[in-house]
Amino acid sequence: MKSISFHKEQGISIRLVNIVMFVLALIASIMLFFAMRRTTNMYNESNRITQNTIELQNSANELMEASDYLTQEMQVFVVTGDRQHLDNYFNEAYIERRRDKALEELRSKNGKTMAYQNLQEAMDDSMELMNTELYAAKLAVIGYGYNLESFPVQVQNAQIKKNDLALSKEAKIRMAEDLMFDENYMAKKDSISKHIDSCLKDLMDEMNAKQQDMTNRVRKQVWFEHFLTWFLIVITLMVVLLTAKLIIVPIKKAVERIREEKDIPLSGAYEVRFLAKTYNLMYQTNVVNKEKLNYEATHDKLTGLYNRRGYEFLLSNVDMESATLLILDLDKFKQINDMYGHDMGDKVLIKTADVIYNSFRSQDYVCRIGGDEFAVIMVHCNSTLKELIERKVEIMNDKMQNAIDGVPAITVSVGAAFGEDGHSVDRIFKSADEALYNAKHSGSGRIKFAKS
After folding, report:
1. Where exactly does CATH 3.30.70.270 map onto the chain?
2. For the segment 116-168, what is each residue's pLDDT rounded down to a tens digit?
3. CA 176, CA 173: separation in Å to the nearest integer?
């Protein structure tokens, strides 16, 4: 009787163990399910943060592009007198209103943060520039002999000083040009650009902080899921050996791939497959984010401009038929290197790169393609803007004639070719290069355009 009683107790103990294991497995399975749900939510939240930041960055860039567009259209109008550009200006400022929409987008999605304050200050600077632009517009309208009453009330109501009204028509046009190209105007444009850059930096800092917090949470979550998975493996192994094929082997492979920083193969049980997919999505998202932030391969370390590789990539992807290519070369740069040394030569290159970059629109591409050779791809630019390009080159050379911080004065010669002639990319470059050759042989600081 004692023996029978002993076996019954053993049977109850095993049965109890099985029940306990089942309950533990059930609890662990439920916990793992909700952990994976939480991981999915984390991934969705991470993706939302990234997407929201990209949209806000696009809004900030949209404000800069709109400001540059207004500047360009008013500059072209005062230089050429073409009324269409003034109409474009008012369409953008009072109908399209991209600046206002960009600011409202940031406020609605991000609140009144530092990024919003910087964008608001950029908008304030842009609005201040409109006073100068309307003043220049009225001078140009009168100078070119237009009927003032046929223009928007903003132009008609611009208060012109008596001395300026007494100027000749030619002098009024010249004064309008000076207002649109002088240092005060460009300083305000620089201020707008700096506020935009600060806004973008604030947005990136906010995203990085949120993503770092999300990364820490995900790391803990992944380890927690690993613990639950292994716990289930141990329990399941005691129930049926088949679980080894469905869970243990795949999990081991997954751990190895994680250590090797590779994707996890999709194999094994449903839970493992789901975990692998979640990890792979997060891993790939992280890789893509790193690739987006890494621009060293296409940028020049000294100047921060696009390098030769970036320039060739742009030529292959930009619509050159609607663009203009400028090739710029420093005049007598070798003499500076020989006289002052290569360190001073580098300073000259940095100064030149900064002047060139700030002389063009934000959507134009500025590249350093050789030692002292630069290139600018002006998108959506054709031969009608020839005078504007000449004016930009003149202003660039004026700026580089000022010896600042001990950096000697220098000039650039420029060759330009318009893509509208329908030539291939190689032909456009060759035409611009030939024009540069002609410019350098006609004197320093000159610009020549390729013959059609």
Report:
1. 298-449
2. 899 889 989 999 999 999 999 999 999 999 999 999 999 999 999 999 988 99
3. 5
The two structure tokens encoding residue 400:
């580089």
SS3 122: helix
Q: pLDDT by residue (tens digit) across 164-206?
A: 988 999 999 999 999 999 999 999 999 999 999 998 888 888 8
The crossing angle, in degrees rounded to 10, of helices 386-400 and 169-181 is 60
Quick check: is 372 catalytic? yes
Q: How far is CA 308 from CA 319, 328, 375, in A?
A: 18, 14, 10
Order of all β-strands in the sheet with 373-378:
365-368, 373-378, 324-330, 412-418, 447-449
Q: Would you tell me the crossing angle of helices 2-80 and 83-91 to the nearest 10 degrees?
A: 150
50: which residues sit within 8 A by CB, 6+ positions away?
207, 211, 285, 289
Instruction: Evaluate if pTM is beyond 0.70.
Output: no
Could you give the 3-state DSSP secondary structure of residue 448? strand
Catalytic residue (one of 202, 329, 364, 372): 372
Residue type, 120: Q
Closest by CA to 168, choosing from 189, 134, 145, 148, is 145
Q: Which two tokens stand for residue 288?
A: 């893509």
Which CATH code of 3.30.70.270, 2.60.40.10, 3.40.50.720, 3.30.930.10 fits the domain covering 298-449? 3.30.70.270
- For the record, the structure tokens of 224 come out as 């927690």
Classify each residue of 151-185 as buried b or exposed e, where b means 16 or more C-beta atoms within 10 Å of its C-beta.
Answer: beebbeebeeeeebeebeeeebbbbbbebbbeeeb
Is residue 215 within 8 A of residue 261, CB to CB? The reply is no
